[in-house]
Amino acid sequence: MEIGEVLLESHLSALGQALRGKVRDIYDLGESLLFVATDRISAFDVILPEGIPGKGSILTQLSLHWFDWLSKRDHPVAHHVLTADFDHYPKKCAPYRKLLEGRSMIVRKAEPLPVECIVRGYLSGSGWKEYLQKRSVSGVKLPEGLVESARLPEPIFTPSTKAAVGSHDMNISFEKMESLVGTGVAEEVRTLSLQIYQAAAKKAEACGLIIADTKMEFGLDPKTQELILIDELLTPDSSRFWPQSSYAPGKSQASFDKQFVRDYLLSINWNGTPPPPHLPEKVVQQTRERYVEALKLLTT
């Protein structure tokens, strides 16, 4: 079932007014939040007219897989997930089981930090474009002579702004991040982000996948001010997944993420500003196949 904007708004209105992100709709349940992953897809920070059927469920299941993995490590990372077991949802959600089960989770409330926490192990996307101009990414100096998709000497932390829906995120320096969130929080977030990426990249390699880069978000518990990992984690929407078998630096890579959609939009010379073009059915189907394959590879 494709879960898009109209269906959610019309069927879940009894849960209150949703806070709509690019992909997720968030409902305030009082002591907690209900996160619902729709099938919407965005590219270049613009929501596209067509969704990817089943995408919300895939994102939810993959995020839950990674959050559970983090919780079981020797040094667990605090995160916002409380439960995805529908039998433990509040009673007010019960009438919407068919819509919510598998694509939603109950999470802790948090005060989101105003930055995206990006870790790059390889040089691609906006990082590659910035490197061509400055030989650096978000103020991090890199060696001369790197090519597109090159593996970096070591992963780098490259924060960005967190733009509103329809606006574009912008890479920022770590010093700018410090001015936004404070030195202590910035350093803790950088350390955690790099640790999570390095451990996840190693795990993914055992599954035949390269995590070229990934975006994470953190927030502060409003009661304790504890730093917690929020939103989604290591999904095809927030990461670049490349098959190891075909990896070859010096060019763009085959991928199991929404880069396939970006590449199509670039091929028709869309300038990244609304209104976005429609996606052909073939692109929708092939994107879904890539998301499904990423889920299978990483969770089986």
List keywords for this structure.
alpha+beta; 16 strands; single chain; D-amino Acid Aminotransferase, Chain A, domain 1; about 300 residues; seven-stranded antiparallel sheet; 2 domains; about 25% strand; five-stranded antiparallel sheet; Phosphorylase Kinase, domain 1
Structure description:
This protein folds into 2 domains: 5-109, Phosphorylase Kinase, domain 1; 112-262, 2-Layer Sandwich (D-amino Acid Aminotransferase, Chain A, domain 1), CATH 3.30.470.20. Helix content is 32%, strand content 23%. It contains 8 helices and 16 strands. It has helices at 5-11, 55-71, 97-100, 125-134, 174-181, 183-205, 259-267, 281-299; strands spanning 19-20, 24-28, 32-37, 42-43, 46-47, 81-83, 104-108, 111-112, 115-122, 136-137, 140-141, 151-157, 160-161, 209-220, 227-230, 239-243. The radius of gyration is 19 Å and the shape is globular.
Topology:
Elements: H1 5-11, E1 19-20, E2 24-28, E3 32-37, E4 42-43, E5 46-47, H2 55-71, E6 81-83, H3 97-100, E7 104-108, E8 111-112, E9 115-122, H4 125-134, E10 136-137, E11 140-141, E12 151-157, E13 160-161, H5 174-181, H6 183-205, E14 209-220, E15 227-230, E16 239-243, H7 259-267, H8 281-299
Antiparallel strand pairs: 1-2, 2-3, 3-7, 4-5, 6-7, 8-14, 9-12, 9-13, 9-14, 10-11, 14-15, 14-16
Helix pairs in contact: 2-8, 5-6
